[in-house]
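#structure-requests
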Amino acid sequence: MATIEPHKAGETSEPGVLRVFSSKSETKAFYNKIAKVYDLLAEHSEGPVRQAAMDKLAAREGERVLEIGFGTGHCLVALAKAVGPQGNAFGIDISEEMLQHTQALAEQEHVADRLQLHCGDATRLPFADGSMDGIFMSFTLELFDTPEIPLVLAECKRVLRIGGRIVVTGMSKEDAHGAIFEMYECSHQHFPNFVDCRPIFVRQALEAAGFSIRDSEKVTMWVPVEIVSAVKV
């Protein structure tokens, strides 16, 4: 598979959306480094938004569900509990340290037997066509460079069954303005190793990938956030 290289500041293939300036190896190293402290850095602000998105997915007993970019594993463990002993929860993340953290949490919460973790890149998912009932992605899609976003969503569509659900939460470029937002984007351009993600058009990306939108909600964290629920038709 061809490698998509990070681009220089200012380059873009979608109007208004910044490119990703860190390589995959740099991103992987960054999340390996912060895995043990990630919850302290982000869970307080991101947790309520993640929960709102989980409520929209509404995983049910016996289902097969996938989380892309599971991080420290709180949502994935919750999904494993929701699908019950007859279901399965799957996760893929680029960071080995995040995987180890999540595995330990799953064992602590007694759901490791219904959980399958993979370390890898979501541009090529290691799952069969039509094998998933639901997919969950939270603050992950915006980590992919602009040309990769359609690839990730095409893979999501491939592994979902017809009628399968996807919920994506991401930093939103829609209606985004103000000094804080501009400062954040500036930080992404100049300090990509620390500010590695940037706002994107979440709903538009899902529509372009051929999903049917069920619900789209905008919330404010410290930047605008979209929570978008869609189905494969």
